[in-house]
Amino acid sequence: MITTRTPLRISFFGGGTDYPVWYREHGGCVLATTIDKCCYITVRYLPPFFEYHSRISYSKVENVNGNHDIQHPSVRACLEYMKIEEGMEVHHIADLPARTGLGTSSAFTVGMLLGLYALKNQMRDKHTLALEAIKVEQDVLQETVGAQDQVSAAYGGFNRINFNTNGSIEVNRILTSPGRINELEQHLALFFTGFARTASEIAKEQVKSTPQKQNELRTIMQMVDEGEAIITNPNRSLHEFGKLLNEGWKIKRGLTKSITNSSIDEIYEAGMSAGALGGKLLGAGGGGFMLFCVPPERRQELRERLKKFLCVPFQFSSRGGEVVVYEPEELYDKALSKERSIVYA
């Protein structure tokens, strides 16, 4: 049995420039951090004594007669990518809901691959793991997703991630003092809007409009430079960071019509009127978590104004995907699987 723990992430600036359709021509970059909220995946070879071939447990439970029948896209794709045909048992739990803008889907894929490799007594370095997760999601599943979430989940930490035109990816840790990080944490508040969405559907529309949004995307890239400069200079006020978030949100919400709606706009405006300096809807848009940057002395005022919405406390985390339980098992004799098929037939 193998259990992996993979962090969720918050992306501050640069989202949208991590799609291959953009960065393979113009380059891209993001400023993002992982947080102390994670997804946990347990994998093992299923003993061949059940009616079904594999069992997958997440928000629903699947008992299937073949791995190709698995409905969960990432589980099915990872098993296909790893060429695993044996019966599997997979359990998934997480600290926060899926489809909410925190990179949960890619964290799942990274954790799933990490667990399967450990089950085979194999290791993958962080960079290779990130690239393989990108390949699974973009090539095997053919999903319209960017490349930042997989990198954040694999590496962990507060990073600037550069996407180069030749397809290579560079990860640079943000170098600043723990006190500065703590100061930033005290300025951030995370609220759940109550809306969930499928990121790839919204992303398809955004990717389609990329040729018409080149000026906006270039500005978004420049905000990564400015955001990094603010964080790494202790003499600059974090109020500047909040105001930059506000400018970024104004641009992001105009990339496609599906990124925001009247309900989300109302939440954002309520937060701003309660003292927030800026904020953004995390992920591709359409729902999920909203992040605000607010002076600590006005934090309670913000919470009172948005008391109908769940405020989730969090801290930055430097941990990337990791194996937390490693108890590999021997594969069962394939003859037992044949006998099971005959008996249950």
Would you summarize the structure shown here?
The chain is of the alpha+beta class and 345 residues long. Helix content is 40%, strand content 23%.
What does this structure look like?
The protein is of the alpha+beta class and 345 residues long. Helix content is 40%, strand content 23%. Strands 1, 2, 3, 4, 5, 6, 7, 12 and 13 form a nine-stranded mixed sheet that branches. Strands 9-10-8-11 form a four-stranded antiparallel sheet. Helix 3 (104-119) packs across helix 5. It is elongated, with a radius of gyration of 21 Å.
Q: Give the helices and strands as they follow along the chain.
A: EHEEEHEHHHEEHEHHHHEEHEEEH
- Overall geometry comes to elongated
| Estimated structural class | alpha+beta
Q: What level of helicity do the residues show? A: 40-55%
Rg over C-alpha atoms, rounded to the nearest angstrom: 21 Å
Task: Tell me the fraction of residues in β-strands, as a range.
Answer: 15-25%
User: Biggest sheet, open or closed, and with what strands and sense?
Assistant: 9 strands, mixed
Q: Report the end-to-end length measured between terminal Cα atoms.
A: 28 Å
Number of strands: 13
Unreliable segments (pLDDT under 50, ≥5 consecutive)? none
DSSP helix count? 12
Mean pLDDT score: 93
What quaternary form is this?
A: single chain
